[in-house]
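Annex B. Sample input.
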Amino acid sequence: MGERHDVVIIGAGPAGLAAAIYTGRGRLRTLVLEKGLPGGQILITDWIENYPGFPNGIAPFDLMEGFRKQALRFGAEIASDEVREVVSDPDPARAGGWLVRGSKGEYPTRTVLVAAGSEYRRLGLADESRLVGRGVSYCATCDGAFFRERDIAVVGGGDTALMEAVFLTKFARKVHLIHRRDALRGAKILQERVFENPKIEVQWSSVVEAVLGKDNVEGVLLRGLKDGSMSELAVEGLFVSIGTVPVTGFLKGLVALNEWGQIIVDARMAASRPGIFAAGDVIAGAPRQVATAAGTGVTAAMAVNEFLSTYK
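Annex B, continued. Sample output.
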């Protein structure tokens, strides 16, 4: 067990690194824990065109490398570890603090800032992961512009899938909306927009059995759920929009979560337990955008600074 930190930030995505810049600059002893590469889910996209300040876009790795270097410049430490649990610090000498337990060590801290993000729900198909960034995407606003005048498919039937299908018609020649039921689940107004859009064709009662293509997506294999029939659909892009899973399992009921497992926070990004804050995709109502993740990370970091100024 190492020295006690002022704040342990869980996750080195846009929210976590933006927070680390501010807590480091505030001269707080800051440790960022990340189980993978710093950068988060945004690294699976090819190009970012909607982050302010980059009129020609920027590669996700380059953007997040800038975040990382800036956090380090202000004194934050970044370590590789997967957090397993957060508990009240059992050491009486550190009463009121927290103990972050990872697979590699334990980290005592005065505050915790959870920015672990969320994981896209995947279809679980053999070639799905192999073709991520080569036609398979989980973010229409991130990657839609790369599919101008191409035929693409969207999997899902909820609000997000319907919004993404409509959004993608700005670029694509044809959008096939693949839904496993014979009725959409999204809001009625969104359904109306789908049905009124001549570029969208709904593939009812169908599931994707395989993603086709060697180096890039060339199509999908569909199975009809009513008759078991198999058919190939020629598309160059596959957008999977079946929800996300917030990375909050390690909290084990420590803070209040909503029905989707997202952390409920107030306007200052404070969770239900004093000294625990959250930011980015892991919080309730998160828009899942780099800019907003960074913004909530900054807000949370400022709240941590304020909290520690009155910490007893």
